[in-house]
Amino acid sequence: MNENIIEFRNVSIDYPLKKYTIRAVTDVSLGIKRGKITALVGESGSGKTTLSSSIIKCISEPGKIAAGEIVFFDNADGEEKETVVSGLKEKQLKEFRWKRVSMVFQAAQSALNPVMTVEEQFVETLLAHGEVRDKQKQRERCKDLLSYVKLDADRVLSSYPHELSGGMKQRVMIAFSLLLNPDLIILDEPTTALDVITQNYIFNLLKQINRETDISMILMTHDISVVAKFADYVGVMYGGRLVEYGTVNDIFRKHRHPYTEGLIKATPSIIGDIDKLSPIEGAPPDLMNLPKGCIFSPRCPYAQDICRGDEPPTVYSDDGSKGRCYFYEERKNGR
Amino acid sequence: MSKAKNFFILVGKTLREFFISFGKTCKKVFSNPKTIAGFVILALFVFIAIFGKLIFPYNADTDVANKYLNPSLEHPFGTDWLGRDVFRQMIAGTSSILEIAFFSAIFTVVIGTVLGIVSGFVGGWVDKIIMGITNIFLSIPSFPVYLLLAAIITIDTPISLAMVISIWSWAGLCRAIRVQVMSLKERDFIQICAVMRMSKAHVIFKELLPNVFSYIVINFVMAMRNAIMASVGIMLVGLAAYDPTNWGAIINAARTKGLINPQNVAILMYPLVAIVIFQSAMLMLANGLDETLNPRLKVM
Amino acid sequence: MTQSKQKFKSFVKKAGKAIARFFVKYKYFFAKIGVALITLALTIILLFFLLRLIPGDIVELYALKLQAQQGITFDRAYELASQLLNYDPNEDVFSAFFRYVGGLFRGQLGESYLETGVSANTLLKTRLPWTLFVSSVALFISFFLGVLIGGFVAQRRKGIGNKIASAYIAVSGSIPDYLMALLLVIVFAYKLNWFPSQNNYDAFNTTPGFNFPFIGSVLHHAFLPILSYTLVQTGNWILHMRGSCIGVLGEDYINAARARGLSDRTIRNKYMRKNALLPLVTMFGVTFGALFGGATLMESIFNYPGIGLEISNRIVTKDYMVVQGLIFFSAAMVIVVNLIVDLIYPLIDPRVKRG
């Protein structure tokens, strides 16, 4: 049995605009482990959302997968089946979406149709996938899920989205993503615009779901501390590239890419001193005008001449972690 | 005394800054092909209006012997039922049309903007009263009122016609500006002005006006368009018969002479086509300006 | 005694609270109705004084007419005229105003000075059906077409359909509706002779009533007016529907619906159309309200006996009481229809609260 549920194989994603084309994701290869939570971290515009929404081919317009393929490993009936998502036909894609992979959107606040009640939208999705035709059972299922995320099911079902608070909508969306028992849930900043207490509650809930149901998750967030607490694996993205990947332990204790180091150093911790914070100098890369060589080199404190020549290849380590840096192997033991 | 002086200094400063930013904006604005096309056509009409009369002066004398002549070198558009040159009539009518469009747009925009800003900025009872008046002007159908006003005021100059038109067309703009001002008022940079105890004049002239300015420019163009529509309509029912060379008046005259006669239809087509060209130029200009000045609304 | 008094007191208190609650609950309705009533009142005042501004004494005009007709002296004619018109020259503006408002409350919009037995009411009865017939048919057709085409091209913004639609919007937006009407009359009535250029039905060969020749004649005559309205207005509706749809298509819930595996048809109908139509409902209401005033220019080009033509004819003949009545009626209809739209809008859009 393949331990990965999704594999990105050299995926590049383009946004063709009127005068030029922006490459939002460049040559990413990554396996998402079955039954685990994989976190993707990086600054805004680093391509996290674009990469993960490509799994269900829901990249925002006019984005397109320009190269590579995304493979989904189905393990439903005990026998293994490979599905190349990027090659799915429209009809198969419709069945694949939400049934196999569901998503909690970054803008969960506005991901519900404002002129339909929550129940109508749940039932509509059930019907679109030909599941649970019996009205009584439909309602049961919706109620179960909503109580699972600790909502007053009856009230929420008959409400319109604008009648719910931000935290409630977020939980509705999480319940919604569980509706068809998917194999993988993509969580795109599931707690933006929520207060810390609700945020913590939601992450604990997600972790619980992950443990109880064995649903794999991809978690995208800016919040490093959340990653440390809840994720099993971490991918660090910068300028559309996967610059480092490893277990959560590897990334936090033995990270080797200078960008990861900067990212962790820039995060405040409750115990640490605020003076010790050191932001990464410089600005995130301009995707239309990328620097030569390693795209992090202008901001990298360890940059050498070689870094400004050609772009570094991905270096694979024995323990399963990998990174895009000329000094990846070197930095393994001592920093 | 010094208050008034300060006020004028402020207005002067604002104007200077305005002209500096105006230069920058011009560069941006004229990168849009629609804007260029609309502006070039408008400039062409203005050119014809100013110099056309000098090159091709219009002679209103009748010459029945030469009536309904076909287009020729001497009479590019032929002659009408009284032997007058249609081409020269059209040229004379250009300035008439432009004057009406320009004055109406100025009146409309000034009334609409001033009332809209006052209503949105002051709020309270002032706002309620102005909105009440605006509601009436929006409810009463405009064209019958144009006709009524034409019966009250004798329309004999472009300015009086422009006044009649603009009296009943500022209300929509006023309402829109008020909404803009009210939403601007809630924004942080205006709120900060209140915290910093800046004068009301400062807030209005330096914060509010520049922010609604692009909106006003676009509406100026649209007001010109609407004014042409209304003025030609008024001419068409023969209520403002002060200028027989106005395009609307030419259409009306040809129409009343009888559309059975293809000669009259031919005469009527020239102003009709000219109006359509002018209107589409205004539409292009407004759309082009809208695309560059309101990037939020841009559609891929 | 005191007990019953107290009971009564508590009853009054309860009733008062209930009434207060009722008003608070339906605050939205009452606020809207109040604004509409104030606007209506101000409209009456404005129209009344506007007509007073018109130079020339109506009685004098009528007297001159009588003098010419009956060959009597001007003084005699003036006396006769003021008797016939029920007009008191010494009556001040305010009592005249209250007399007018009193008439409005009794449903009399305004008597004609020039023709006996003709009033704004009788004219509305005979003219309004024609105006409403032509303009509402055109409005419904153009709204339907515009919503259909606008929604279609919004989804295929790079297609040829969108280019054609854009060109059509530009052309139809540049030609005033009455000039479009003029063009259609020239082509279809004079050149091709397919449709009549004047009037609402053939008065010589048909008799009004429920018979086929009459209905056929009415439709034949209404074709060009309806066509010219529709041609011009459709572009406008396409423009608004397309803009609204594009706005909705950019919303997150559309992408989310796609991710849920919903079919394109469901997304188009339940998600895009339903949301995009909301702002257009208000516009449709406003446009419909404005129909009651008639389209003066259109009707005068087709010589179609609607309200608009009547207003412009009566302005020319200075029959001002009737004009006042007709304009007031059309303004009132705009206000009433807008009020209705405001009141039913919360039922369509759940986001607008009625509380």
Largest sheet of chain C: none
Tally of strands of chain C: 0
* Biggest interface: B-C, 36 and 48 residues
Taking all residues together, what is the mean pLDDT of chain C?
Answer: 82
Structural class of chain A: alpha/beta
Instruction: Calculate the terminal CA-CA distance of chain C, rounded to whole Å.
Output: 41 Å
- Helix segment tally of chain A: 10
| Strand arrangement across the biggest beta sheet of chain A | 6-7-8-3-9-10-12-11
Q: State the separation between the terminal residues of chain A, measured CA to CA.
A: 37 Å
Oligomer: heterotrimer
Low-pLDDT runs of chain A: none
Structural class of chain C: mainly alpha
SSE succession of chain C:
HHHHHHHHHHHHHH
Radius of gyration of chain C: 27 Å
Strand residue percentage of chain A: 15-25%
- Proportion of residues in extended strands of chain C: under 5%
Task: Supply Rg of chain A.
Answer: 21 Å
**Share of residues in helices of chain C:** over 70%
Tell me about this structure.
- The complex is a heterotrimer of chains A (about 325), B (about 300) and C (about 350).
- By secondary structure, chain A is of the alpha/beta class.
- Chain A is built from 10 helices and 12 strands.
- In chain A, the strands form 2 sheets. Chain A has an 8-stranded mixed beta sheet with strand order 6-7-8-3-9-10-12-11.
- The longest helix of chain A is centred in the middle third of the chain and has 18 residues.
- The mean pLDDT of chain A is about 85.
- By secondary structure, chain B is mainly α.
- Chain C has about 350 residues and is an all-alpha fold.
- Chain C has 14 helices and no strands.
- The longest helix of chain C has about 40 residues.
- The two termini of chain C are about 40 Å apart.
- Chains in contact: A-C, B-C.
- The interface between B and C is large, with 36 and 48 residues.
